[in-house]
# Entry
Amino acid sequence: MTGDHTILEMRGITKTFPGVKALQDVTLEVRRGEVHAICGENGAGKSTLMKVLSGVYPHGTYEGDIFFEGEPCEFKGIRDSEERGIVIIHQELALSPFLSIAENIFLGNERSKRGVIDWNSTNAEAAKLLARVGLTESPDTKIMDIGVGKQQLVEIAKALSKRVKLLILDEPTAALNDDDSAHLLDLLRSLQGQGITSIIISHKLNEIHAIADTTTVIRDGRTIETMEMHGAEPVSEERIIRAMVGRSLDARFPDREPVIGEEVLRIEDWTVHHPVDHGRVVVDHANLSVRRGEIVGIAGLMGAGRTELAMSVFGRAYGSNISGRILKDGKQIHVGSVREAIRHGIAYATEDRKRYGLNLIDTIKRNVSSAALDKVARLGVVDREGETKIAEQYRKDLNVKTPTVEALVGKLSGGNQQKVVLSKWIFADPDVLILDEPTRGIDVGAKYEIYTIMNALAAQGKAIIVISSELPELLGTCDRIYALSQGRITGEVSREDATQETLMHYMTMEKDGAAR
Amino acid sequence: MSTTMTPETPAQARVSPLARLQGMGGNMRQYGIFGALVVIVALFQVLTDGKLLLPNNVASLIQQNAYVMILAIGMVMVIVAGHIDLSVGSQVAFIGGLVALMMKDMGLPWLVAVLLGVAIGAVVGAWQGFWIAYIGIPAFIVTLAGMLIFRGFAILLVGVTVAGFPAPFIDISGGSIPNFLGFAGNADAVTLVLGAIVIAALVGSQVRARSVLKKHDLKTEAVPLFLTKVVLITVGIGAVTWVLSQSAGGTPIVLVIVGALILAYTFLMGRTVFGRHIYAIGGNVQAAVLSGVNTRNVNFWIFVNMGFLAGVASVVVTSRAGAAVAAAGQNYELDAIAACFIGGAAVTGGVGRISGAIIGALIMGVLNMGLSILSVDPAVQQAIKGFVLLLAVAFDLINKRRAGGSR
# Structure
């Protein structure tokens, strides 16, 4: 059964929740020293499987066997699995922002003598660990003062401090930009050189391609296929997608025949300053426009001011000292609040749906109606029947996977949550819909659905602005793309002329006009 | 959006099993609290050899605890929005003092004094709401300040006890609905009629709500559960009605006031845009802002409303005491807050119901009354109430954790 080269074997894992089999006879075999990718659509069971492995779901709550380094495991909690050298890093990082890097690394595992912390050894060991993950920050830097990319590395340093043998990363690059992602992948490779085995859960196929030795695809709670990435026959992205969705996606983007009408929204000379640091210009004299039936993209690196531009237009939800003009259907309008923006037919679906987009502890139904409650209310009294009907309609139209619209939004998968966000804004019936990272953290199948919804909305004559970090997504969906760099619009490219290279050129343009 | 936009997806509706339970989750918790109330009533009924549910005791239970229920209604709204109000006890003393002085020193008619008192309550609420909503000071700080400020005002205002109020004013808390229908046997007919109306209305609304759900093929509670609920409503209110009809006065006037407030605020929280906005703010304030909710205005009006209800409570309290004293309303804020949390409101906001807060208030009230009948030392009573609060919230949390897995 378990050979020397196998570090982890999970056999016949079945995990049942009341009414649903989340995992059914799942098998996973990980070789020592490899990077093993697990992919699958949201809700396929990847996270459940990792929770079984790490003891979040204790032994006895699932069926099947786990062998780690040849020995059977019966973990009762995370501590048990960590003692054996299995460490999981969740998508939402578990760091305390007000504590230092060193304090975070040894949180719960303090270097101490009789309960008194030994700061010298804490900082010295932390510095060593930081060097291993390629961080040059001082160990007493506060977590809040470093970016998400570096925080991720601190998490890995923390795992190393626990003498990790098997490192599990749940969508580690979901919140990272390209540079930080690349660095993280390099780090995984160097850890591999140090004999650390990794399991990486990811949606990003190019990433899996770049790093994984083996890829296991899970669908509907079952193992579909385990692929050797460096075998005789190279594994194509298409093949992984096929296994994930159970069908071939001929194209990752649905076809669309744009029917573009007159201009709906024009933003002129738009300048926004930082909300706290009033002297800092975040959006610098930006001009852009969008037409009826058109999908317009905004490309830009992290910190280029994409979200800030969109939110400042959306009723000044961001920024200070905002100047410039907004023209709707050719007429200048004043948009002083989110309410006014909605009334003028402008909608903005946030990049961070959990924090800014949804009330996770409320039902699907009530989230769908939340941006246009007045449409289902008379004299301030909500028509619950009408509200239910509407939510049901969107559930069907957008294919939200839920037994009932009375379910809490917090229990849905990312893709389905995003569909609720879209439902909410479609129900508000805007003329202009700004979608900020509409497919972030969403699996391939759901992405396709979101694109289809975008196309259908454009076909209905809505103007759509898409902000995205994924250039292929912009190239695949947009009619026209603006590039944003350091708060300025540095380029405007039509669908025909756009390539990743031209966009990247504009996105990295410095203030003086030269490329970075 | 009449056409289907999405392509067929092969993946079956893979839904977290927890989502299936969700529709029921909130209700289950409500039943749990209600069950706890029933158990506590039964327990004290046995411990007090049946004294707890003597007609006159039930009437005075309601009269004694009306203020907690009134304050808890406002407080649960404050808590759902993610705030807290520590000042309501001091407000009660301050406004109660004003109402008393308006009647005694200024010679205003009692009704005018009452209406002015309630209006002043709203103004006090507006004062606090201003600082919270428009200046952005946390409610904890503003109402802590208010607790000191209004207690101070109350002491300045009511140097010596003000007493000797007109009879109609005393009747607000002490009187009963006149029995103009006579008696059916030894039962007060007005009370029986009122009880019947309430039962009919509640059962009717349950049936209506269910049929709406049915019409849209939505999950409804299982038939036995639904029938149990209907039977419980009928038996519960029927029993209270029957007992009250045997009491000396019949239906206490204050019960009508509290009942009307419960109905009005249940409607406000459950059915209106304003109520929805309160839940939205408590659930995720940033999402509410980005959905176009004017969070400042909503927060402001929540506190205006709290002040208004503190005004109503102060009238009820002053009427019941028959006198205004500077020390009135001591710890009332804590009673109201405890009622909300026992009733299932979430400390983090976004969750809580009027019905829960009322049941929470009743649990506290029954404890008070039962322990008093057993002549338990007041200090011990207080400690017991503390433990009940702690256990209720702990029970709730543990339940939630069990239902929600690791979340």
In short: Chain B has a mean pLDDT of 87. Chain B touches chain A through 53 residues (CB under 8 Å).
